[in-house]
Amino acid sequence: MAHATRVVVPGGARGVAPPRVGVARRRRLRPRAAANDGVVAAESSRSSSSSSSATTLSTAHDSETWRAFVAAVAGEWGGCAVNFDASGTPTDVPLRYVHGVGRVPAANMPFRDAVYSWQTKCEIVDVGDGAEISSKRALPTIGNEDAISSCGGSEWGEDVARVEDEPVVILRGRGEDKTVTKRGAFSAGARRLTFAMDGADAINVVRFCLADESGARVRVSLSVRRKTSDDGWELASAEVWKERKGQCVLDFIGVEEEEEEEGEAFGVGGGEWTIDRDASARFVLSWPTTTPDDDDDANGGSTFAAVAVGEEEEEEEGGGRGEGTLKLPAGGDGDVVWVRVGGGGGGVGDARVAVEAGWIPAGSKRRHVGRRVHDVATGRLEEVSLTTSERRRRG
């Protein structure tokens, strides 16, 4: 997944990274959100619930849920990021910082050791009209490894060469609900998946943040494109960040584990999954029957409504199952992470496609899943869910 970035080298000198990492010089202007980035819900008055119930469900910028969300995601988070290709294979970090030489493209170092993880720092802040994500990545260093600590540079100084990503603002639009939870989970992305134009792939970026009660979180960015072989959609690439507030995270790339027995959901065994309604949220999108007059409305007149999470004790089948599911080799510390772009199964059906990310923390019985469901033919988004559930054994 390409990033708009700048390179910061020791001593304060700056250089522009090679085009292969999608580098652009950062401008000190207010960042713009990507097209259709940020999911909007309808006014609470659209709901048939009572006024008090609608207030409880509201996730607008000034709501109690939004304020709790901002508090949960705020601060500086240390982490580790890994890029994956369409097959779920991790890709080598494209740059090295060679002490005494400077930055060197990895492609120019044929005898290099592969490095799959970026050591990272990230900050998410409330900017009044949405949330801004700012992040930086430490370059793998050769010849002066002490410049960054073994725990990923928890104390970064001027002697650390780094790449700074261009900030992005998500969840924009005042007076409307947002796809967030009080515990810091969110989903953001296009309301309509874009088709290819002029023979080039149209890449749609979908973002998830999955938050655990342990204080850790996993952020996932998925690049989605139209298939060339049929009318479906597929994964083009993915990026996974594992983070902790005020701490650093060791590399989390691991070897593939043995295949689970049939019927198991990624090593967590059988049993039923009980949804934690306090930590979960669901949103349904409505599209107008006629084309809106406002040509500048990037959302096509669509509106989201936050809906109550169901009373059912057992979560519907899904979360790590179905066409297009990839278990990523990100379990070096025992975590289970998967992504999915596909239809059929998991309660989705053949006429819809699920864009999904899931995470089961190491040693935990809790499962976190973010899912966006689109119509296959039109690419229109229909619903979003952010669910946390707990496994319970059958008696």
From TrEMBL:
Source organism: Micromonas pusilla (strain CCMP1545) (Picoplanktonic green alga)
Low complexity bias locations: 1-22, 41-58
Stretch list, region Disordered: 1-58, 310-329
Protein name: Predicted protein
